[in-house]
Specification:
Oligomer: single chain
Radius of gyration: 26 Å
Number of domains: 3
Largest sheet: 3 strands, mixed
Strand order of the largest sheet: 3-4-5
Number of helices: 5
Helix content: 25-40%
Distance between the termini: 29 Å
Structural class: alpha+beta
Order of helices and strands: HHEEHHEEHE
């Protein structure tokens, strides 16, 4: 799950031989060309790596490229309103009884952090072997090591698995999990969500949460 680091630098001065040490003009030409490569060639590939290749830092264009590669949309189509919208009934008689909403379907684009999360989960979904150990390693990398909080998966032993979130789900994350089926899981296994924000009895740091936690598995 870690990106391979590449060295994009180009050292043109290696072309100079020992007998060229006193060739001031030749050295100057190569140095100017080296400066151009530093600013353009190396800078271009560094920006490409950051803005497109790396899903943790990809910009909007990079996310659009990855969305095509991974075959997943970066917007959610919301169903149309089931009640008459405010002021649009026959003779506008539904005032005070309708909703502020379009009659047709509404497209809700994801924010850039949501796009990155969706793409990373989709990539993990495609490469995961589907066992509990592999899934826990993936969610540890995506959620825990990136500031969301601790997440782990429990096998229900009945064709279900439980994703346990030890923090309150922020609305952007909840929106993604509600509208996308992208959490890694074995084929044919149903996913359940469990949100627990209290520590289990005796399992906090240095077991310091005795008398303050819950009895739980």
């Amino acid at each position: 799950m870690k990106n391979q680091l590449f060295d994009f630098s180009v050292d043109l001065l290696k072309a100079l031989l020992w007998r060229h040490n006193e060739a001031v003009h030749l050295t100057s030409v190569l140095q100017q060309k080296q400066n151009w490569y530093d600013d353009n060639q190396e800078g271009f590939w560094t920006d490409w790596f950051t803005n497109i290749f790396d899903l943790k830092t990809a910009n909007a264009f990079g996310c659009a490229v990855w969305a095509i590669i991974l075959g997943i949309p970066l917007a959610v189509i919301l169903p149309p309103a089931t009640r008459p919208t405010f002021g649009f009934g026959a003779f506008h008689r539904n005032f005070t009884r309708g909703n502020f909403a379009p009659i047709s379907q509404n497209v809700m684009p994801l924010t850039l952090p949501q796009q990155r999360l969706v793409l990373r989960l989709r990539y993990a979904q495609l490469i995961s072997r589907g066992n509990v150990v592999d899934i826990n390693r993936i969610v540890q990398y995506i959620f825990t090591e990136n500031g969301y909080g601790q997440v782990y998966v429990l096998d229900g032993l009945n064709m279900t698995c439980n994703y346990v979130f030890t923090f309150a789900l922020p609305s952007p994350l909840q929106f993604v999990l509600t509208n996308y089926d992208i959490l890694p899981r074995p084929a044919g296994v149903r996913i359940n969500f469990v949100v627990t924000t209290r520590l289990t009895f005796g399992f906090g740091a240095f077991h310091a949460n005795f008398t303050r936690g819950n009895f739980g598995a």
